Amino acid sequence: MTAKAGITTKVVARIRDVPQALWDDKVARGHPFKSAAFLSCLEDSFPERKFGYLIVSQGADVVGLAVITEERLDLSLLLPEQVGTLAQGVRKVLPGFLSLGLGMVGTFETAERHWWYDAQRVSEHDFARALLAACDEVCGNAALLLVRDFMEALPEDVRLESWFLQRGFKQVANHPMAMVTLDGLSSEAHFQRLKKKSRQNLRKKLKDAEALGFQVERVRDFRPLIDECYPLYLQVHEGASEFKRNPFPRAFFETIAERMPTTSSFLTLRDSAGHLIAFILTGTGGGINNPFCIGMDYARTEGTPAYYLMMWKEIEHAAHTGCRVVDLGLTSYFVKQTVGAELEGMTMAARIQSAWLRPLLNPLLPALLSEKQPQERRKFRVSTFDDDSQPPH
């Protein structure tokens, strides 16, 4: 614990030691999959990962919070498949081969800002210093430190990122967020504001899904489905070409079901014979609907409109439950923009931790770590007069 001018800081290792209601309000801001309950699920699912939570206080009041993690980053996930196979063999002799210690403000499973501070009680400078000191405490074995995520459209995020950039960090482009803003719109009204080509495309996809006999159901208590769904999740995980990382263990889904029973659900998709062919783990709460994790049977869904159908059903669910935002997450941006998602840019601040390697390697970080940005497309129609605006059924 440190103290300065009435401000004290400490780092705790478990989310249970953080004021959870304050965390959910200020850091998660109602997002079910950034909540204290969700972070407890991550802690139990990844015991090899080190978690640290910064608590900044003034007297009895908490005036700042953040989450920090440290783990081994498997570099082979970023390389061709044959390199990964080779790495697995070498690791029988050299366990750390093609991996490095990665420290992060944030986690791989959450996005947008991973901190909060009361600007009336603690200065940006003092909070940033406390955050960096906490990173040094938690991430002592890290070769690389990432502070994520700074939203490009938020001036306060830009200012805080600038503090780190002025202290030897390099800006790195992250994947953008795909967000559908409803703000009280029904799914029909949202459909009607899409541009004509998107409406035509989506209507056709949904009619094709109906012709195939696809059946969609939202399941609240999804524990009986986990055995059936988990292999589908692994299919998608193993086939991912972007944002590769270690898979969730099966127990993760069990823990979510137990600790988040009112905010989590499975959206399941079955074929005309009743076979499960896809699912989405979804979080709904705080005005946010987040289709978080997907699984698909590629042999049965390839070439079908399954993904379009499920994305649209998530938007319908969000509108029906009064959510203001649908957080569609990262990747698959073409489909997500077709259903009306806008892309919100995110950046990270990166730094090599070794003082003597930093001058050599830091300048390379933007090229090595920056994600390729997807093409942004027009989502909504320009004219309000259109004879093709009837919503799908």
TrEMBL record:
<protein>
    <submittedName>
        <fullName>Acetyltransferase (GNAT) domain-containing protein</fullName>
    </submittedName>
</protein>
<dbReference type="Pfam" id="PF13480">
    <property type="entry name" value="Acetyltransf_6"/>
</dbReference>
<dbReference type="InterPro" id="IPR038740">
    <property type="entry name" value="BioF2-like_GNAT_dom"/>
</dbReference>
<dbReference type="InterPro" id="IPR016181">
    <property type="entry name" value="Acyl_CoA_acyltransferase"/>
</dbReference>
<feature type="domain" description="BioF2-like acetyltransferase">
    <location>
        <begin position="196"/>
        <end position="331"/>
    </location>
</feature>
